[in-house]
Amino acid sequence: MGKNLAFGISVAFQPLAIPSFIILTILYGVPESTTVPHEAKWSLLLLISLTTFIIPIIGLVGMKMTSSIESLQMYDKKERIVPFAFISLFYCMNATFFYIKLNVDELLVMTVGMVTLCLVLLTLVTVFWKISAHLMALGGWLAVISVLSIRFQSEHLLYYLLATLIICGAVGTARLYLNTHKPSEIYGGFALGFFLCFGVYYYLLF
Q1: Which of 25, 45, 77, 78 is disulfide-compatible with 130, CB 3.0–4.6 A?
Q2: Is the pLDDT of residue 64 over 90?
Q3: DSSP state letter for 16
Q4: pLDDT tens across 108-133, in order?
Q5: Residue 185 in contact with residue 129, Cβ under 8 Å?
């Protein structure tokens, strides 16, 4: 794996983009899991992408431009704490807004809350241990697909599951190749995301 390829994979599956992928999977991959009308799905996906990806990314770029962080990669554990805390606070505000003002579908609202909980826990863990945010997010995505495939038994979800497994492996390999994480940090991030999200989704759907 070349450095450019590894970097490209890391950027393509940036942790803040994964909540949008999860919502995309729910709305269009398993439409029977949600009560959101078809005509409202695209607008809702755009809103979630704006609040969980675009605005936080703009905030991180602003931190980089003002030298609050040295790099968007945030290689050092201490450098991650303030940006993670900032994004966690924004996610908490966003989850509260969805719950109070846009409670259009319980599963989607709970998904936004679950993602927020993951990020808050990631921030707390980062104080002591630099685990992989990439693999935490991807582990959560894999857990959601796993529970959905058990609950709704859609054949096409097997392909989603296999594709996500491959993505997890590729991103984990890329992060190791770029020397941004140790294997234990990769496994730690994945375990946190997978088991937390699997537990939440299993509780919600069963």
Answers
A1: 77
A2: no
A3: G
A4: 999 999 999 999 999 999 999 999 99
A5: yes
Pure H helices in 101-156: 106-126, 133-152
**Residue 77: is its pLDDT beyond 90?**
no
Paired tokens of 106: 């319980």
State the pLDDT at residue 3: 83
Q: Using alpha carbons, select from 165, 111, 168, 161 the residue that is nearest to residue 134.
A: 168
Structure tokens at 71: 């790099």
Q: How far apart are CA 196 and CA 186, in angstroms?
A: 16
Pull the structure tokens for residue 164. 């996500």
Residue of 144, 152, 133, 145 whose CA lies nearest to 190: 133
Residue 1 in this model has a pLDDT that exceeds 80? no
Backbone conformation region of residue 98, classed left if phi is above 0, alpha if psi is from -120 to 50, else beta = alpha
The DSSP letter of residue 129 is -
